[in-house]
Amino acid sequence: MFVYRANGRREPAGRCPGHPHQPHLRTLFAPAVAAAAPDPAKVPDYLAAVKPAGNPEHGDYQANFAMALAKAAGKKPPEVAKEIVAALPATADIEPPTVAGPGFINLKFTSAFLARAVRDLATDERLGLPLAAAPRTYVIDLSGPNVAKPLHVGHLRSTIIGDALVRILRALGHTVVGDNHLGDWGLQFGILIYGYKHFRDEAAFQADPVRELARLYVYINKQFKKADDDDEAPTDDPLKKACQEETAKLHAGDPENLALWKQFMPACLEMLRPIYERLDVKIDHALGESFYNPMLPGIVEDMQAKGIAFESKGAVVIPNAKGIVPRTEEEMKKEEPPAILRKRDGAFTYTTTDLATIRHRADTWQPDAMLYVVGAPQALHFKTLFAQASRWGYDRADYVHVQFGSMLGADRKPFGARKGGVVELMDLLDDAAKLGLEKYEASVADRRENGHKVYEATDAEKREIAEVVGVGAVKYADLSQSRTTDYVFDLDKMTATVGNTATYMQYAYARCRSIFREGDIDDARFRTAPPAVVLAEPAERALVLQLLRFPEAVEAAAADYLPHLVTGYLWDLAKATSVFYEKCHVLKAPTPELRDSRLLLVDLVGRTIRRALGLLGIRVVERM
RNA sequence: GCACCCAUAGCUCAACUGGAUAGAGCAUCGGUCUACGGAACCGAAGGUUGAAGGUUCGAAUCCUUCUGGGUGUACCA
Which nucleotides of chain B does any protein CB come within 7 A of? Predict the structure, then answer.
């Protein structure tokens, strides 16, 4: 991933600012490091090397700057580490640090500090999540479906990742504008119009316009495919040409085509609405391509007037990111192509629309950053677009292509939009919900068989469980994968009840709630007047450390636009909780003090899971 | 041809952005406990991080070359 800054330089994205205890440790070290460092300018870099320990045996945190510092000072790393440790101010928050290996400084919080910190966390509705000191305004481009066909699994990633980023950035106090750049004006409507005029089944269209339009779209595209297989250049395909002509007529304002477009649009939007509802995704704006259509001639004129765009081979183009328009054969082989704003036939392209969109977003919301949650194949397009938009004068905001890998079929081949066997989103959600319910019922039967008292859910509750579990499974599967790599679509894995899945987290949440129900305990007390926390077992200590790390995970996810850092955190939290349950009885704790302390931890685990899943757009149920 | 992305355990994925012995989940094998919710826990086995060089105290991570896959590449979006 890269960020285009105002100066046009390519820079890595911002680093994680660290969780609230990291600054605390850095403050502790700052004077000693400053005294030992020959170059004061490097002190912040050294302090940045105070980070969570990679291995719990080494403590809670580790300071890794002694090696670099020793080299700069011409000393031996372990000696430098020892000197710095000796120079630390006295504190009751950490145990005496130890020096190990080539000069690592290992740090461990005292139990007293952890107990105090987690008790403070209990009264904090934000669970430690900081509000940004300097809130920024983000415009996030997400989802962007082609409205002429039903959503399929390929649209999941942009929608789900984009929605999670909206929620995460908002949670940290930023202003976020979500904008769904609908594909509602391109060739797909030429295809629909041509298909409607020549191949429609009138009865089917009357009965269900949505389905008939979808059929026509697929039908025409299959005809294109044939041309490809015959090794004909797609542009020579007469059918495609005919569709392009219908598109051009629409764009030129042809009354018949415009009327058809207006007739088709509501049906197309109706096709999308229930899916967004089911996914629990609300996008602030849906300014599609058609919205920008009237602005396109002005965009091209303006860019030509400013000397950024010009004619080449009958089209109007903007140079590639390097500022070059290749003209000779040799250049065309070596250089990236320019982007076309207006084709030879006068039609505008999506590059022009994207430029109009940038101008509109910049003028309307004055964002500090514009994020495009769009698949990796469009990297070249955005590279060119961002570079030239900056030259055009829209250089205040950072442009980020938050790209993600393709969804692959079981054969590890990308899902092609035109290929058969593409799973429609609605069917996928139905299947996932059905599987979720089956597993729930199997689990209930199993528990009953083993003599447990089992709560009998009503049919309405079962439907709710199925939906929450099913949709959650699909979302979590996508979000838990680092977004840059391709990923293999696997429904069974998504709906698994073990491992790093939504179901496992939702179940962990339900377990927390169950303990309070079982003991008939009011949880409010643990949030308003929390009892003292007693850390008797290592499992409790590990759990507390994990609870305190929630802000760190969220901030890291926001810094690099990586929601999977939140799911990774959840998985660690869930594992720590499992061990805790195993080692520490809660309701049957040896003393009332310990029971209260453990109830506080259970309540915090439940709240943290709910909050973290909420940041990913995933819901929980109280019982399952 | 050129450009971008990727390659980690049998499979699916991590690795806190250069840190200590590369970790999980499936699958395989073994074990624990009448179980505050067993959708559990513990353990074993599984690796020359695609290959070869280089950078340095230290590399899955950074640089070069190569191999193998994906994607894009002047009038689709």
Answer: 1-7, 12-17, 19-21, 24-26, 35-42, 56-58, 69-77
Secondary structure (3-state) at A398: strand
Identify the three-state secondary structure at position A340.
strand
Compute the distance between CA of residue A137 and CA of residue A363 in angstroms, rounded to an integer: 13
User: Structural domains in chain A?
Assistant: 21-122 (3.30.1360.70), 156-408 (3.40.50.620), 425-615 (1.10.730.10)
**Which residues are CB-contacts of A135 (< 8 A; sequence separation ≥ 6)?**
A173, A174, A175
The SS3 of residue A30 is: helix
Between CA A417 and CA A152 the distance in angstroms is 8
Kind and range of the H or E element at A61? strand A61-63
Q: How far apart are the first and last CA of chain A?
A: 39
Q: What angle do CA A415, A421, A424 make, to 5 degrees?
A: 80
Tell me if A570 sits within 8 A of A612, measured CB to CB: yes
Identify any residues that bridge with A369 across adjacent strands, giving them in sequence order: A138, A398
State yes or no: ipTM above 0.90.
yes
Q: What is the largest CA-CA distance in chain A?
A: 86
Q: A349 CA, B10 C1': separation in Å? A: 48
Distance CA A132, CA A129 (A): 9
pLDDT tens for each residue of A38-61: 888 888 889 989 988 888 888 899
Q: Which residue is nearest to nucleotide B2 (CA to C1')?
A: A334
Q: Are A553 and A487 in contact (CB under 8 A)?
A: no
A467-493: pLDDT as tens digits:
999 999 999 999 999 998 888 888 888
Tokens matching residue A365: 């919301």
Going by the DSSP 8-state scheme, the letter that residue A143 receives in this structure is: -
| Residues of chain A by 3-state class (helix, strand, coil), percent to 5 | 55, 10, 35
